[in-house]
Amino acid sequence: MWRLPGWLGQIERALPRLDAWLAAHPLPAASTASSPSSPSSLALRALAVRAHWLGELGRWACAAQQLQQLVVLEPERTAHWYNLGFVLEQAGEAVPAQAAFERALGLAPRLDAALLGLGKALARQGQWERAHDAWVCHAQRQPLCPDPLVCLVHMHAGRADWAAVTPWLDQLRRFEPRQAMALEAWMSTLPASADNAATVPSGPPGRPLCVV
Q1: Are 157 and 124 in contact (CB under 8 A)?
Q2: pLDDT tens readout for residues 30-40
Q3: Which of 182, 183, 147 is nearest to 165 (CA)?
């Protein structure tokens, strides 16, 4: 019988137990001020864990459904909006992913992971300039983080804008030479002038889901 490897298999086996716990502990009708150990707070955290696990298993639509419940119940919790954007972007739902990332950034303007996801959602829609701005902002805040640089290289190379590729690839090469070499190998397979926009969203997958 086929089994999921390692910790993914553990998540798969733990889901029924979590579902049973959630069935015995109903969610609150709306967000209310309560202690972290109250039954309603624990139920919300359990639902967040369930969404996280579904995302880890790649069940993006199911994870999004859980997170859509959570953003209604706890609309001021940044992690729910970020996680919702993450799973929607992974599922290719660019427009609602953009809205979720923008809401996360409205709550936490310094959440750089949401900038990365926002750029990917915008790139999926062909909003190149706005995607560029989001990733540049991320790169300026965290100059030693390779993720926005990889995204910028992917976007500009995918559009055959080789002049725009060079500064970002050079910056990446200074501290991640192997990653830069891998990108150069990928770029060598692209036509010199054709529009390869379909390749643009294939940058790094974004920061992992978080449960807060």
Answers
A1: no
A2: 655 455 556 67
A3: 183
CA dist., res. 138 & res. 113, Å (int): 8
Q: CA-to-CA distance for 102 and 63, rounded, in angstroms?
A: 19
Copy the structure tokens of residue 193: 């002038």
Q: Which residues, other chains included, contact 143 with Cβ-Cβ below 8 Å and sequence gap of 6+?
A: 171
Q: Which residue has the tokens 């967000």?
A: 31
For the record, the structure tokens of 8 come out as 């993914």
Residue showing tokens 């995204």: 151
- CA 191: distance to chain centroid? 29
- Mean pLDDT over 26-31 rounds to 72
Return the CA Rg of the chain. 19
Q: What does each C-alpha distance from 192 to 34, 158, 161, 182, 187 come to in angstroms?
A: 59, 10, 9, 18, 9
The residue whose two tokens read 């397979």 is 189
- Judged by DSSP in three states, 27 sits in coil
pLDDT band for 7, please (50, 70, 90 cuts).
Answer: confident
What is the pTM (predicted TM-score) of this model?
0.86
Start-to-end C-alpha separation, the chain: 35
